[in-house]
Amino acid sequence: MPIDFYYTPGSPPCRSVLLTAKALGLELNLKTLDLHHGEHLKPEFVKLNPQHCVPTLVDGDLVLWESRAIIVYLVQAYGKDDSLFPKDPKKQALVNQRLQFDVSTLYPAFSDQYYPWIFAGVPKSDDKEKKIHEALAFLDIFLGSSTWAAGNSVTVADIALVASISTFEAVGIDLKKYANISKWFEKSKSTLIGYQEANQKGIDGFKIMVNNLTKK
């Protein structure tokens, strides 16, 4: 049976799932939802996912949302090995820590500042911008201790984080002051399988949307 994937291309969490599928050589049955026109609020989707959010994955009788849960599931269910999500408890714990950092600290700092500005015209705040750079400084420290985000090989932590960081760059947040992030980011672009199709295309569309919504 096909694996259905409900998503919107510009969304960082959605792009992390697309990148994971590329890494696994997994074909997803893509189902685009236009959030601006309320397609995620249609009764058939709300019945599927009561939180009516994207990304949402349907694999047989499993309906799963929250991107970090989805990417871990895909690797455990379809990965040929455990390289993207190690079975070793200590290695896995580090990957989980980086995923939790992304979902609880890094990405929320961005969304709290930029989504109200993009979608509702709320002025940006210096305090919120400071929180973004505090989170980036932490990530820069993490990336100074290993080749990749959670060790010396690519894991789902890199996939989740690169979807977030590429979105930071898309709105003009200066990453150059963070040497470790900048080096890792460029390496990710050239190393992660399917980066252009799974991530960059969505970023390009996101940039166009931001420009259209925020231009005076």
> What is the strand content?
5-15%
What integer is the average pLDDT? 96
Largest sheet: 4 strands, mixed
Query: What spatial form do the alpha-carbon principal axes imply?
Result: globular
Order of helices and strands: EHEHEEHHHHHH
| End-to-end CA span | 47 Å
Q: Give the strand order of the largest sheet, numbering strands 1, 2, ... along the chain.
A: 2-1-3-4
Helix content: 55-70%
* Computed CA radius of gyration, to the nearest angstrom: 17 Å
Low-confidence stretches: none
Structural class, please?
alpha+beta
Number of E-type strands: 4
Number of helical elements: 8
Give the SSE layout.
Layout: E1 3-7, H1 12-24, E2 29-32, H2 43-48, E3 56-59, E4 62-65, H3 67-78, H4 89-120, H5 126-143, H6 156-170, H7 179-191, H8 195-214
Parallel strand pairs: 1-2
Antiparallel strand pairs: 1-3, 3-4
Would you write up a description of this structure?
By secondary structure, the protein is an alpha+beta fold. 60% of the residues lie in helices and 8% in strands. It has helices at residues 12-24, 43-48, 67-78, 89-120, 126-143, 156-170, 179-191, 195-214, and strands at 3-7, 29-32, 56-59, 62-65. It has a four-stranded mixed sheet with strand order 2-1-3-4, covered by helices on one side. The longest helix is centred in the middle third of the chain and has 32 residues, at 89-120.
Structure in a nutshell:
This protein is of the alpha+beta class and 216 residues long. The protein has helices spanning 12-24, 43-48, 67-78, 89-120, 126-143, 156-170, 179-191, 195-214, and strands at residues 3-7, 29-32, 56-59, 62-65. Helix 1 runs parallel beside helix 3, helix 1 packs antiparallel against helix 8 and helix 6 packs parallel to helix 8.
